[in-house]
Amino acid sequence: MTATLSTVDTLVGVDVAGRLRANRRRRAARSAAVTLGLAVLVFALFVVTMMVGSFRIGALEVVSSVLHLSDNAGVDFVVRELRLPTAFSALAVGLALGASGTIFQQLLRNPLASPDFVGITSGAGLAAVVGIVVLQAGGLVISGLALGGAIASALLMYVLAWRDGISGYRFILIGIGVAAFLDGLTGFVLTRAQLFEARQAMHWLTGSVGQASDVELRLLVGGLIVLLPLAVLLQRPLRALELGDDSARTLGTRTELSRAALLGTALVLVALAVSVAGPIVFVALVAGPIANRLLGAATGGIVPAALVGAALLLAADLVAVHVLPTPLPTGVVTGAVGAPYLLWLLATTNRQGAGG
Amino acid sequence: MSAARPPATARRAAALGPGLVALCGVLAVVAFLSVTLGSRDIGLSEVLRALGNWTDDGSISSTVTLQLRVPRTLLGILVGAALGVAGVILQGVTRNPLADAGIMGINSGAAAFVVFAITVLGLRGVGVYVWFAFAGAIVALILVYAIASFGREGATPVKLALAGAAVTAGLASITSGIVMTNVDALNELRFWQVGSLAGRYAPILTGVAPFLLLGLAASLGLGRALNGLALGEDVARGLGQHIGRTRLAAFAVVAVLAGAATAACGPIVFVGLVVPHLARFICGPDYRWILPYSMLLAPIVLLLADVLGRVAARPDEVQVGVVLGVVCAPAFVAIVRYARLSEV
Predict the structure, then answer these.
(1) pTM for the full model?
(2) A273 to chain B nearest CA, in Å?
(3) A291 close to A304: Cβ distance less than 8 angstroms
(4) For chain A, what percentages of helix, strand and coil (3-state, to nearest 5) are there?
(5) Which runs of E-coded beta strand occur in B137-254?
(6) What are the residue ranges spanned by the domains of chain A?
(7) What is the average pLDDT across B285-309?
């Protein structure tokens, strides 16, 4: 490589290899800076979430209380018992949605291919709505049903789309079919329900981070700790897949295995997120594009996308609970928080779009 | 993507014309079923007598046939064709197999305006919702197109997709925020948002039919332009196409078609997304064929689903949106599994 490049250098009279190296360095530096900036933003939002409310607490007090450094019974109760679970759930759900969304979009090479699109959230929604309307269940049962529904519909899609491997286009079409099937059933159940249960079901379908119980949250956090690093490790083959299957094979990627592993990771992440907070729309869809826009040339980072997801969800929850006259489910606000920012990005973007 | 045309392609091209005629026949049969079958059991001879008279003589069979089933069937044909064609055009313009009018903000715009009519203006009734939904759909589409047109490149496929997602999410947020705090609105909306041909009487048909017919006629002129876009923008430009103008014309046609269809029947999902793919399985990549095929396939699918919903749960009805999901989606999945796909 360097040999040929040095020949080129002598021919052209330019230090090509040096320029390439400098380019790579610039990209890495920008990526690191963006990731760090996003992490700081997410941390700030996380702390602010625990500061505000009917009882205001200072930032330092919050941090020391969470880290068990202080000893003030009143503050500790409010922070650790009341606010930490919600803040933590917004953080974890946002990370999971952002990561899985960007993995989906990159794997299927389609900016619209968020997990909401392909049956997974529909499966969770159907199971939960049936639980609410037919079984009149609540709490943990609903979360369990949602998790089961998400995983069952993901498996169904995978089995249906499998024909000597998974082609992105076929997977997308099958996903549309499965999602339409499940949404049809959900709509049917909703029109047959009593108004009271229909309201409850609609509430769940909107999604909210304040409804999580400890058990689901622990599951999600455990999943994140295992799966997020795994997803980052799997990024190398993912990068090769972006060039197209044939090129990826030439580069020695075992396409089918990487794709299956990555899809599995993204599926489990989104299933856990939905079981904790319900199907919160929009976050998984735009976290990737927003992160890419911030990253410039170094696109496709899973960690930045996850952080964008977390920032969106934390901000949305702050707005939903504290800014609006009546507290509403988080999912009502995610679109209202994310949309303007995305529109601004679109308005200022000059990069050429390549159709899915 | 080989350059040589395999003989199968030539054979298929020769069969496409007769296939179109055959589809017309199928559509006629399905339309006949839609008039003769329904949630109320009326004998075939009664239906034929009513159709023969063509004036309502006050008998139940005559009233149901002429006042309910005939308008409903005609509406199903027009709305189905409109949704199918709108889906083809959007998928072609955005070069994205996932594109349909719903993603471009049509449904969320319509829903937002309907909810506005219910909560702020205190209006009720399908006949009122039609015009609010139409206005909302058009406003949403204009918004999406305007946002995507910012920047140097104009409305590129990716920007259209993202703008559609953003507008949809923003509008849906507002709608669900209102619905969460207003029980009345929620109750009305949960029935409106399933999408149905039921309860849409003659006045609604005559209200939206001109828009739909106009849009359908205009759409047939877009085949060549879409073929050009499918080759990639640079090639299309090289062939002397004006990309921006093509996109704008396509969007205008979609706005009229999908806007009027959604206004008349609520957000009917699936048809606009899936029928273009079915047409592509049959015709291959030539949009001059895909457009008319979708125009016939979509109403066949929609009317079949509607008839099924009417006879499956007598004396009740199942909304067509539900039937489409529960019956047609599995059929579509089966086709996708075993068909050789041609990409968008």
Answers:
(1) 0.80
(2) 19
(3) yes
(4) 80, 0, 20
(5) none
(6) 31-349
(7) 92
Per-residue model confidence (pLDDT) at position A38: 92
Say which amino acid occupies B47. V
Chain B residues within 8 A of A167 when measuring between CB atoms: 341
Q: Which residues of B302-338 are buried (b: 16+ CB within 10 A; e: fewer)?
A: bbbbbbbbbeeeeeebbbbbbbbbbbbbeebbeebee
Cβ neighbours around A302 below 10 Å, total: 27
Q: What value does the mean pLDDT take over residues B79-89?
A: 93
d(CA A292, CA A299) in angstroms, rounded, equals: 5
Chains A, B: CB pairs < 8 Å: 207
Contact criterion met (CB below 8 Å) for B130 and A330? no
Q: Token pair for residue B67?
A: 């006042």
pLDDT at B68 over 70: yes
Instruction: Find where tokens 């619905």 sit.
Output: B179
d(CA A226, CA A221): 9
Question: In the CATH scheme, what architecture does the domain A31-349 have?
Answer: Orthogonal Bundle (1.10)
**Which residues, other chains included, contact B211 with Cβ-Cβ below 8 Å and sequence gap of 6+?**
B256, B257, B259, B260
For A173, A246, B158, B328, the CA distances from B342, given in Å and listed in that order, are 12, 18, 21, 21
Higher pLDDT, A254 or B328: B328
**What is the spatial distance between Cα A109 and Cα A242, in angstroms, rounded to a whole number?**
7
B162 shares contact with chain A (CB less than 8 Å): yes
Percent of chain B exceeding pLDDT 90 equals 18
**pLDDT: is A129 or B240 the higher one?**
A129
pLDDT over 60 at A228, yes or no:
yes
- Nearest chain A CA: its distance from B31 CA (Å): 24
Residue A198 reports pLDDT greater than 90: no
The Cβ-side half-sphere exposure at A24, using a 13 Å CA radius, reads 6
Inter-residue contact B229 to B290 (CB < 8 Å): no
Instruction: Supply the pLDDT for residue A29.
Output: 85
Burial class of B286 by CB neighbour count within 10 A (0 to 12, 13 to 18, 19+) = middle
CA distance B183 to A92: 32
Find where tokens 């933003």 sit: A41
The residues, ordered by sequence, that sit 6+ positions from A284 with a Cβ below 8 Å of its Cβ are A97, A98, A100, A101, A104, A114, A115, A116, A270, A309
Whether B170 and A328 lie within 8 Å, measured CB to CB: no
Q: What is the structure's pLDDT at A356?
A: 28
Q: Let me know how long chain A is.
A: 356
The answer to whether the CB of B324 falls within 8 A of the CB of B270 is yes
| Banded pLDDT at A348 (limits 50, 70, 90) | low
What is the pLDDT averaged over residues A331-347?
Answer: 77
Q: Is the pLDDT of residue A166 over 80?
A: no
3-state secondary structure at position A109: coil
Average predicted confidence (pLDDT) for chain B: 83
Q: How far apart, in whole angstroms, are the C-alpha atoms of residue B141 and residue B98?
A: 17
Q: A302 or A247: whose pLDDT is higher? A: A302
Q: Do B324 and A180 touch (CB under 8 A)?
A: yes
* Residue B339 reports pLDDT greater than 80: no
Domain ranges of chain B: 21-338
Secondary-structure class of domain B21-338 per CATH: mainly alpha
All residues at 6 or more sequence positions from A238 whose CB lies less than 8 Å from its CB, including other chains: A103, A106, A107, A258, A262, A300
How far is residue A90's CA from residue A51's CA, in Å, rounded to a whole number?
15
pLDDT at res. A249: 65
For B245, list phi and psi in degrees, rounded to 5.
-65, -40
For residue B328, the chain A residue with the least C-alpha distance is: A181
Are residues B165 and A286, on separate chains, in Cβ contact within 8 Å?
A: yes
% of chain A at pLDDT higher than 70: 84
